[in-house]
Amino acid sequence: MIAIDTNVFIYVLNGHERFGPLSAKLLKNKESKTASKLVYAEVLASPKLEDEILRSKALLFLDELNIKWQELNNNVLIESANLRRRQSKLKLIDALHIASAIIVHAETFFTNDQDLLSLNISGLKIKSL
Q: How many CB atoms lie within 10 A of CB 118?
């Protein structure tokens, strides 16, 4: 199973010239995929989605993806706290995304966040697009 960070979804929705096609390909990949429900909050907060119609389209896009959405629960919260204790520079939102991936036993976490690419998390490969 692969886990996906928010920036992948944003690249597709914003039609990013370089990373949009790569992100779309990843989302269409037949491999099982997971992402934290935090993606919804981060995507829908985008200034580019102030228009209600665009926001509705983005929400529909997320809802129709074949992804196992990981809820924020006590296990994710505790794992994120453990991660932050071991990785002091890890931001809370990033720790929650990574913890969500760990909880469902994802093998790989895809992100373009340069700060995350340098992390060494046991049992989870962190890769860029």
A: 10
Q: Residue 74 has what pLDDT?
A: 97
Are the CB atoms for 34 and 68 separated by under 8 Å? yes
Whole-structure pTM value: 0.93
pLDDT tens, position by position, 55-109: 899 999 999 999 999 999 999 999 999 999 999 889 999 999 999 999 999 999 9
Q: How far apart are CA 18 and CA 98, in angstroms?
A: 24
Superfamily of domain 2-127: 5'-nuclease (3.40.50.1010)
The tokens 């926001």 sit on which residue? 55
Distance in angstroms (rounded) separating the CA atoms of residues 37 and 115: 21
Yes or no: say if 109 and 98 are a contact pair by the CB < 8 Å rule: yes
Confidence of residue 122 (pLDDT cuts 50, 70, 90): confident
Tell me the C-alpha distance between 116 and 110, whole Å. Answer: 10
